[in-house]
Amino acid sequence: MVSRRELAVALCGALLLSAGVLDAKADSVADFYRGKTVNVLIGVGVGGEYDIQARLVARHIGKHIPGNPTVVAQNMTGAGGLKMLNYLYSVAPRDGTQIGMIQNAFPALQAVGHPGVQFDAGKMHWLGTIAPVVETMAVWHTSGIKSIDDVKKRETIAGASARGAITFFYPAMMNELLGTRFKIVTGYQGGNAINLAMERGEVEARNNTWSSWKATRPAWLAEKKITVIAQAGPRAPDLDAPSVEALARTPEDRQLIELVVSGTQFGRPMTTNAGVPAERVKALREAYARTMKDPEFLAEAKKLNFEVNPVLGEAMQKTVEKILATPKPIAARAKGLLE
After folding, report:
1. Comparing C-alpha atoms, which of 209, 57, 51, 206 is closest to residue 133?
2. Which strand ranges, in their side-by-side order, compose the sheet holding 205-209?
3. What is the pTM of this model?
4. Is the dihedral of CA 295, 300, 305, 310 positive or negative?
């Protein structure tokens, strides 16, 4: 029979061994990252909210990753951000040195079977987002458009980056489900290019998040250069515009809208690719969480007018799984909008 003393000694030994294994894993992660470069890939152009947030996180997350690697932000544009995510999933090293700032609609694109998708969002390792977002549709002040009803009465030119990008499918969704008459012009390399097109009079409207308007064009808001005529996602308390979800004419239409705008739950999400060792995924998620509490990060986010209300990796992973389990009839209806 084993005595209590012998049992206690064995238990203590097991705990010490377990702690040693954990310490060894932590040391191995630090050893791996020490002296390395972590690339933060951004699928859209310079100057928009995705780019600004990605660079903000990149400036601070390195000091929270074991081994303190150098973190470098890089833009890789094309196909509304799909080029970058397809590269991250299929080509980039699967070792934890590659992080992507992902267009938040991409899990929904996968759910509907978008032909450009060459990734599996369910197999990627999601790290987190600074905050959920509110999507908006805004019109330029010289357009004469003041409401959704006005866009139902005459054609209004909306700028977009590409089919499959939210700048395209948000107004396309409003056309199909609400009866608006947006003429969507594609080919702009990111939100900043669309903003310049609005100033030049090439386009009259665009989709953007409420947080992006406040961060990148506060003067436009102060000077009433734009009018927000619709919002979607978590309702903004400081924005007086109707909710697209609430304007849905049937419960099925509302389900469809909720899938199309499901990216609002992700804000500006960051992920690493499939195949990264579990201990490095854990370290990156912990580093992201610590960054969200970093006083220097918070101070800079405040200066940039970004709300910090993070959704962290594990919760985001569950939301991705829910989107990928969308009922087929709803996904089939959404496909035409998201392609």
Report:
1. 209
2. 182-185, 156-159, 205-209, 135-140, 226-232
3. 0.78
4. negative
Q: Crossing angle of helices 251-260/166-178, nearest 10°?
A: 170
| Max CA pair span of the chain | 89
DSSP 276-314: --HHHHHHHHHHHHHHTT-HHHHHHHHHTT-----EEHH
226-253: per-residue pLDDT in tens? 999 999 999 999 999 999 999 999 999 9
| Domains defined for the chain, CATH in brackets | 34-132+266-327 (3.40.190.150), 135-263 (3.40.190.10)
Q: For residue 236, what are the β-bridge partners?
A: none
For residue 48, the model assigns a pLDDT of 85
CA distances from residue 117 to 113, 163, 191, 276 in whole angstroms, order as listed: 7, 13, 22, 20
Backbone angles phi, psi at 147, to 5 degrees: -155, 170
Q: Identify the residue whose tokens are 């690493």.
A: 272
What pLDDT, in 10s, does the model give residues 38-67? 999 999 889 888 999 999 999 999 999 999
Going by C-alpha positions, the residue among 159, 135, 78, 168 that lies closest to residue 262 is: 135
